[in-house]
């Protein structure tokens, strides 16, 4: 048997839970009906199952099922929410507020709108990764149509103050959209209590199948969107195209399981994460947590190992599946824009590793992972000129480096 | 990204990691790169009275390709004269390690490190 790396990248994706797969399977074969077929039982049965899934999603976020539309994933949901609202209301308002640490699909949607003439404010974040509510308030104008702030950051796991943001937006009659791909199923979400008008979620981040997600669109007060897919008018006209019942049903089941297990799973993951951090922090010096240490989801830990470059470290721990804020792996060679937005120096951003823990992570895996990290950080520090300098008391910032 | 066998070998078994006394008149030290860019190489050479590099040591902060590039050049320059060593080109390093285009800068940094170490050595000797 080939042993596979220990999977610690749950913010990237999660395996489909076998319980989810089980409810999906019949809808690939015998229950193959088109849920939009109104004239026969094949269609009715598929429709019934899809609507049940829609209810399961709605229940998890305290919404009405009629407010949930299926999409291909959070990227599409974010595009539809941001561009859809902006385009629909463009005659009245043309200003959007978002945040520097948003996912690329939110930032890119906003950039796209800027090219069309919309104005976009990119809010900074505090050193803990969380927005300043006063800065948010000051950014709002009579022209502001939408505030789009993510619920939980994908790199550093910090939780934004959703209820407070929602309250500010509702008072000003501004729509509040949140990219909750990393939040749904991990922390309690209540679109009513939090005054959320639009919410994006993704199936594969919560142990459902890849290729499906949903967008919550508030009915009262009503939020309207301009759709970008022309067709049969499915999903209340906002997203034409035949739904995939197995995928929708998988997402619904994933939501049901997440809801049932959230409280227990939170406690379990927190214990695992704290155990992991404790082992690392008591064995290695100069390790820093990126992002707020309290206001974060239990399954995320983003650490900077000073004087050790992240990609170099990942290569040494090839038995661990993790990701790095050092973008040396990508074509850009720029370190993570999320970490940079926190005010973290580029040299420290290059030393960061994201650890993601999830439903199938065990204590044995945590212990083994910590041991491997410690061993490799020590090995690489022994061959790091920066570590050597720091031990000699030389301030790395005092050196005139030749940037290349 | 898949690393070549040679990169993995140098990364896992780096040659000539360590430090020489930078105050020694026969030692030249080159420190190139920047922490903000994600790679820093320190290359040191010890040169005998015939101008031959008798020892070389390195320390590198960087990705696997950066570590492999510096490890490789320490092997290559040992036993060469400083004039021979200064002719090593980044393209030879990149080719030997089969570096992908996005990692070419690692080989350029290693070339810079050799030149910086030789320059430091020559400056010391001008002063003597």
User: Using CB atoms under 8 Å apart, which protein chain pair has the greatest interface?
Assistant: A-B, 30 and 32 residues
Major sheet details of chain A: 7 strands, mixed
Radius of gyration of chain A: 22 Å
> How much helical structure, as a percent, in the residues of chain B?
40-55%
Spatial strand order of the main sheet of chain B: 1-2-3
Percent of residues in β-strands of chain A:
5-15%
Q: What is the average per-residue confidence, as pLDDT of chain B, rounded to a whole number? A: 93
* SS content category of chain B: alpha+beta
Structure notes:
The complex is a heterodimer of chains A (404) and B (128). Helix content of chain A is 38%, strand content 13%. In chain A, helix 4 links the parallel strand 3 (95-99) and strand 4 (119-123). In chain A, helix 1 (18-24) packs antiparallel against helix 7, helix 2 (41-60) runs parallel beside helix 7 (245-283) and helix 3 (74-88) packs parallel to helix 4 (104-115). A seven-stranded mixed β-sheet of chain A has the order 2-8-7-6-5-3-4, with helices on both faces. A four-stranded antiparallel β-sheet of chain A has the order 9-10-13-12, covered by helices on one side. Chain A is α/β, with parallel strands linked by helices and 404 residues long. Chain A is built from twelve helices and 13 strands. Chain B has 128 residues and is an alpha+beta fold. Helix content of chain B is 45%, strand content 20%. Chain B has five helices and three strands, in the order H-E-E-E-H-H-H-H. Chain B has helices at 5-12, 64-77, 82-85, 90-97, 104-127; strands at 27-34, 39-47, 53-61. A three-stranded antiparallel β-sheet of chain B has the order 1-2-3. In chain B, a hairpin with a 4-residue loop joins strand 1 and strand 2 (39-47). Chain B is globular, with a radius of gyration of 14 Å. The model of chain B has no long low-confidence stretch (mean pLDDT 93).
């Amino acid at each position: 048997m080939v042993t596979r790396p220990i999977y610690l990248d749950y913010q990237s994706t999660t395996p489909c839970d076998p319980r989810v797969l089980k409810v999906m399977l019949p809808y690939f074969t015998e229950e193959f009906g088109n849920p939009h077929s109104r004239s026969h039982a094949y269609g009715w049965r598929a429709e019934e199952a899809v609507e049940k899934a829609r209810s399961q999603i709605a229940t998890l976020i305290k919404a009405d099922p009629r407010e949930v539309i299926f999409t291909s994933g959070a990227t599409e949901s974010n595009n539809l929410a941001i561009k859809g609202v902006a385009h629909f209301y463009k005659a009245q308002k043309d200003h959007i507020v978002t945040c520097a640490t948003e996912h690329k699909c939110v930032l890119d949607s906003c950039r796209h709108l800027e090219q069309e003439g919309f104005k976009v404010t990119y809010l900074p974040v505090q050193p803990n990764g969380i927005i300043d509510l006063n800065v948010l308030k000051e950014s709002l104008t009579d022209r502001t149509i939408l505030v789009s702030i993510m619920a939980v950051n994908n790199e550093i796991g910090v939780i934004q103050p959703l209820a407070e943001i929602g309250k500010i937006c509702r008072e000003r009659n501004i729509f509040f959209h949140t990219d909750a791909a990393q939040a749904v199923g991990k922390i309690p979400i209540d679109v009513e209590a939090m005054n959320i008008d639009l919410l994006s979620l993704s199936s594969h981040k919560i142990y459902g199948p890849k290729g499906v997600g949903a967008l919550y669109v508030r009915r009262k007060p009503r939020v309207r969107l301009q759709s970008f897919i022309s067709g049969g008018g499915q999903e209340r006209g906002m997203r034409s195209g035949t739904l995939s019942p197995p995928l929708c049903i998988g997402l619904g089941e994933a939501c049901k399981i997440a809801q049932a297990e959230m409280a227990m799973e939170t406690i379990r993951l927190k214990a695992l994460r704290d155990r992991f951090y404790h082992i690392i922090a008591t064995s290695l010096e100069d390790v820093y947590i990126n992002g707020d240490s309290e206001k974060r989801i239990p399954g995320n830990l983003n650490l900077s190992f000073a004087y050790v470059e992240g990609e170099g470290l990942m290569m040494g721990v090839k038995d661990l599946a993790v990701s790095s804020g050092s973008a040396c792996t990508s074509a850009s060679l720029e370190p993570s824009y999320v970490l940079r937005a926190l005010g973290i120096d580029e040299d420290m951003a290059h030393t960061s590793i994201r650890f993601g823990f999830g439903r199938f992570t065990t204590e044995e895996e945590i212990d083994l992972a910590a041991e491997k990290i410690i061993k490799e950080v020590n090995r690489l520090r022994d061959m790091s000129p920066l570590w050597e300098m720091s031990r000699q008391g030389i301030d790395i910032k005092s050196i005139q480096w030749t940037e290349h | 990204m898949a690393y070549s066998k040679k990169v993995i070998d140098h990364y896992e078994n780096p040659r000539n990691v360590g430090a020489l006394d930078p105050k020694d008149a026969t030692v030249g030290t080159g420190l190139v790169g920047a922490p903000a860019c994600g790679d820093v190489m320190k290359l040191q050479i010890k040169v005998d009275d015939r101008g031959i590099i008798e020892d070389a040591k390195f320390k590198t902060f960087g990705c696997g390709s950066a570590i492999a590039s510096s490890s490789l050049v320490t092997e290559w320059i040992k036993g060469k004269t400083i004039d021979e060593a200064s002719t090593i080109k980044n393209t030879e390093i990149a080719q030997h390690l089969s570096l992908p285009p996005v990692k070419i800068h690692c080989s350029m940094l290693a070339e810079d490190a050799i030149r910086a170490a030789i320059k430091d050595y020559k400056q010391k000797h001008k002063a003597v």
